[in-house]
Amino acid sequence: MGLAASLVLLAPACSNLTTDLSVPVAIEIETPESPFVEVGDTLRLQVRLFDRGGDSIAATDVRLAVIDTAFLAVDSADLAVIGRAPSAAARVVALAGNLRSDPFSIQVPAGHADSLALAGPAATTLLPADSVSGALVVSLIDLTTPPDSVAPLSGRPVRFVIVQPAFRPDTATVGLADDSLAQTVLTDATGTARATLRRRHGTQPDSVVVQAVARRSSGAPLRGSPVQFVVRFP
Prior knowledge:
single chain; mainly beta; Immunoglobulin-like; 4-stranded antiparallel sheet; 21 strands; about 45% strand; flat; disordered N terminus
């Protein structure tokens, strides 16, 4: 899974008394877009070191250590964690020399999202009197968890992207609900995610194609991705 550029967990570490600016004095774990890893799946983490001037330096000899070993395993060679058992907040820390990050919590959900499926109309029409389209709806499907078990599929990210026409952000005449060309929506308690398309100023296209993609924590797309929608402008 890609990393969120806007959300970073700073992890203060032990100070190093040297005045050598090239010596690392702080360590941080970048927060994934949605920090979860399903049982049996892998989540790779990004760790950065900082010198006394606050500049990022090459992260060498970095390793991970799991605090809650009943729920997570660690693959330090790839700076990755592997889900072992469900947990709301399994903790891991990053280590480099005498530096240690604050514990970072990762959800290990009970359910297992196997595929992404259409859960509403694949085509809709945005009438001239409307400013917002009907909902573009997808649902995650769990084919692994036994039917009599609780298998929550909430909190998983689904990425909705306008793929046609090929708008530029500054000239787009339509956008998703947040006026962007791509929006990440987290699934609700039923494993469902919804997006809408809205008009912006300018000449409207004849139609717009939106694709929805869900990925495993390892970054691999779920079966069924992408789900495609067509919004027509009569």
